[in-house]
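Could someone model nickel (II) ion with this protein?
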Amino acid sequence: MAILPIIIAPDARLKVKCAPVGRVDAEIRALMDDMLESMHAARGIGLAAPQVGVPKRVIVVDVAGKDEEPAPLRMANPQLLWASDETIANEEGCLSFPDHYAEVARPGKVRVRYIDHENEVRETEMEGLLATCTQHEMDHLDGVLFVDHLSALKRNIILRKLTKTKKLKEAEAV
Ligand code: NI
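Reply:
Sure, complex below.
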């Protein structure tokens, strides 16, 4: 297992449409495990493969609380089968947008089909934080970021701040 560096927005690699996985083999399984380790190390609850520079349809999610048993989900080719008309607004963050949060409205319940780490096709109904987080991660696979759900004004404020922080960091590194 390895901790992979997480790409910070704005970055063209976060805007690509990712390719489906043929089957979950040892290589994809290793990617899933590395992603989970990287996500936990960064104290995140979800991570998508493009965030570590791999343009494949793979996401990991673990919304278990601090005092709960870990509940990692490893998903390849996740697909939305159904979404409730009812939406809920949750405060969202993203490991590619450190220190930025905003409320995003999404369907409160969804049914998702995916291939798990053992190459088994699974279908699960999700609600609450798990539904929000999984939809956020699935968006990443089509190059859609949570700020894309905000008004252009809010999105630009966040992106400008991130660009400034990046430039400062680059200047420090020289
Ligand atoms: Ni994200």
